[in-house]
Amino acid sequence: MTRRPLPAALALATALALSGCAADDPAPAAGTATADEMTSDTEDMADEDMSEQDTMADEDMSEQDTMADEAVPAVYDFAATTLDGEEFDGASLAGSPAVLWFWAPWCPTCIMQIPAVTGLAEEYGDDVAVVGVGGLDDASAISEMAEENIDGITHLVDDAGEVWQHFGMTQQSTFVVLDADGEIVAEGVLTEPELESAVADLAG
């Protein structure tokens, strides 16, 4: 059977119909973002903003930590426990002169130093902190000695020797005298006149 060609009018109508379908569903124009692309861009911008905020917050905290470290000299970077079992922060001494007395409960020289040390606390205690640091024995021996024989000063129980090591102390009946800026102005084995002179100068 011979196939006849479509009439020209029918061919034209078919072409127009196909053209109309294509026009109803146009492709996105060049440079026009789709909804998915716009959402992705928005999320990227939000992530960048959060990252910048986190970076700024980290920088602020770092600066604050640096300022805090600079404000308190390293000499005060120690902690201990008092006779009452309270935590003692070395930074509490910052800003005023201080005397640290390193003693041991079995030391005869330390016992002889008690009147001089407590006398300093009584005379200069309003201006100079006087702190006893008991060590070279167990906590019970240190506490018993301090409670029974030494009044008027703060005592630290340093049976582990951490405060002693912090100040480089290797023997008992020694002193560390600090000015208000945390500078060591006298240390080691000091005679009573030497100790009193150093403290009197700091008290002004």
TrEMBL record:
Q: Which UniProt keywords apply?
A: Isomerase, Signal
Listed Low complexity bias regions: 25-36
Under the heading PANTHER family, the entry gives: THIOL:DISULFIDE INTERCHANGE PROTEIN DSBE (PTHR42852), THIOREDOXIN-LIKE PROTEIN HI_1115 (PTHR42852:SF17)
**N-terminal signal peptide:** 1-22
Record has Membrane as a keyword: no
Source species taxonomy = Bacteria, Bacillati, Actinomycetota, Actinomycetes, Micrococcales
Q: Specify whether Isomerase is a keyword of the entry.
A: yes
Q: Show where the Thioredoxin domain sits.
A: 69-204
SUPFAM superfamilies per the UniProt record, alphabetical: Thioredoxin-like
What Gene Ontology molecular-function terms does this entry list?
Answer: isomerase activity
Q: Which InterPro entries match?
A: Redoxin, Thioredoxin-like_sf, Thioredoxin_domain, Thioredoxin_ResA/DsbE_sf
Question: Which residue spans adopt a coiled-coil conformation according to this UniProt entry?
Answer: none
Specify the protein name. Thiol-disulfide isomerase/thioredoxin
Quote the Pfam families the UniProt record gives.
Redoxin
Ranges where the record places region Disordered: 25-66
Q: Where is the composition biased (Acidic residues)?
A: 38-66
